[in-house]
Write a structure and sequence with these properties.
By secondary structure, the chain is an alpha+beta fold. The chain has helices at residues 2-16, 80-87, 97-106, 131-144, 149-166, 170-182, 195-200, 203-213, 231-241, 291-302, 308-316, 347-363, 368-384, 389-401, 406-410, 412-417, 421-431, 445-452, and strands spanning 38-42, 48-53, 59-66, 91-92, 95-96, 110-115, 120-127, 219-225, 263-268, 274-282, 320-329, 334-343, 438-443, 459-461.
Length: 462
């Protein structure tokens, strides 16, 4: 009975101790992420391959990516990369769209395609025992997409409807205008296709884009699965992708020197009861020395519900339901931005408050507690993204397409932990300076122009 009595006494003492519920429990430092066993190789045609032996799930994750994002769209045909990606799995000489869907469903697979500013990607997964059939299906799509005329016509009709809907959304209009101001003269200034480009796009345009950009020497292929013996995997890769002919591919478009300067553009949207506000300027890529300090600074400023912008602009001032900031890296550059949607009557104090927080990041050192919390938040989110093989595949593909090695993933947590207050203050002065931020507002010019002009000269556009 004595052990039981002792246990009850200890339990009573512990229960009597007060718990401070106003403070979150301390989070121990996270360890650096360690990749599962990885093999790198390059096929004779230049296709870079990464094999990852990850036995956590009996599935295989396949990713293939190309330096073929929207920055490679011809000036007269914005949206060509997007359309090429969307139509890759809509037909080949041996399979129509329905047959592709049926063959994928027959092995429990799922295939998706997409395009962003820099890259065009194909993602797929299936049970490991169907790896050979999955690889055959994906290789057929990537090497032999035929862009059937009926599918091209349907895609154009659907995209025109989507575009019409997008152009009714003020946040889309603000994002488009900010891109035009910040990236003027570079393909990044065209985040959306135009109605004319969609209407005039032909099957021949899609074939030409594919033949020019979807080459093995312009691609990275990642396979993640329970690969105890990789020899047959390499043989499959050679059989399915080895005859793919390498080609000369164009270089990426380099961004002109950053000429950041303060400007205010008001896109008139008559009848709007609120204003959509975006501010921004050119940022940095993942390879820039400023990347990690800027990543941490941005998270402190507007990276979630514990950020400064959220707690002041939304919670304290009540100006906006949503407010945030983002330091988005691209292949060779990046974008620093802040955004919010506010009522017309508070446009002036809300914009001044937003810009004031950007300026404050460079004027004052962050506290040790604030910095520690953000480091835990960023590190935890990164590690969580790698808890499944799909996350490993996604991160590895993005890493290699950006010209980085496994070390980028394996040292990311450590590099976040090493960011110091002085570094945060320095990059904030450099990238958050309000005098170099472009301001874009979408709203009713008749209602908000006067109040917005109190923050500086305003250019109104229809």
């Amino acid at each position: 009975m004595r052990p039981l009595l002792t246990l009850l006494i200890c339990a009573g003492i512990c229960a009597a101790q007060p718990i401070d519920r106003t403070k979150p429990p301390e989070t121990p430092p996270l360890r650096d992420f360690q990749l599962p066993p990885t093999q790198d190789g390059t096929l004779p045609n230049g296709l870079k391959v990464v094999l990852v032996d990850d036995s956590r799930y009996p599935m295989v994750e396949l990713r293939i990516g190309f330096q073929a994002g929207s920055q490679y769209d011809p000036p007269a045909t914005p949206g060509l990369s997007e359309a090429t990606a969307a139509l890759l799995d809509e037909g080949t000489p041996s399979r129509n769209a329905r047959k592709i869907a049926e063959d994928a469903a027959g092995i429990g697979a799922e295939i998706s395609t997409g395009s962003d500013s820099d890259f065009l990607t194909v993602s797929a997964y299936a049970p490991y025992e169907h790896l050979a059939r999955l690889m055959e299906l994906v290789s057929d799509i990537v090497l032999n997409a035929s862009f059937p005329e009926n599918e091209v016509r349907l895609r154009k009709e659907n995209r025109l409807q989507e575009l019409a809907d997008q152009r009714t959304q003020p946040d889309v209009l603000a994002d488009e205008k900010l891109s035009q101001v910040v990236f003027a003269g570079h393909p990044y200034e065209r985040p959306l296709p135009t109605e004319k480009a969609i209407q005039t796009m032909t099957r021949a345009d899609l074939v030409k884009f594919r033949d020019r950009h979807l080459a093995p020497n312009n691609a990275v292929l990642v396979l993640v699965g329970p690969f105890e013996n990789t020899k047959p995997i390499w043989q499959m890769l050679e059989a399915r992708f080895g005859k793919w002919m390498r080609r000369d591919v164009p270089d990426s478009v380099k961004l002109a020197k950053d000429a950041a300067a303060r400007s205010i553009t008001l896109v008139d949207r008559p009848g709007s009861v609120q204003a959509n506000v975006m501010v921004g300027r050119i940022g940095v890529s993942r390879t820039n020395p400023d990347y990690y300090p800027l990543l941490v600074a941005d998270a402190i400023l507007g990276g979630g519900t514990s950020s400064r912008l959220f707690n002041d602009i939304r919670e304290k001032q009540g100006f906006a339901y949503h407010v945030s900031s983002h330091a988005q890296p691209f292949k060779d550059t990046g974008l620093v931005m802040g955004q919010m949607q506010v009522r017309n009557e508070v446009v002036e104090p809300a914009v001044k408050g937003l810009l004031g927080h950007f300026e404050k990041m460079g004027a004052e050192r962050v506290s040790a507690e604030e910095l520690s919390n953000i480091k835990n938040y960023l590190s935890g989110g990164f590690v969580m993204s790698l808890t499944k093989p799909s996350g490993v595949a996604d991160q590895l593909l993005r890493t290699r397409l950006n010209g980085l090695t496994n070390q980028y993933l394996e040292t990311r947590v450590d590099k976040i932990r090493r960011v110091e207050p002085d570094q945060i203050q320095a990059v904030s002065r450099k990238y958050f300076d309000p005098s170099k931020l472009a301001v874009v507002v979408v709203g009713d010019a008749k209602v908000i122009r006067g109040s917005l002009e109190k923050t500086g000269p305003v250019k109104v556009e229809k």
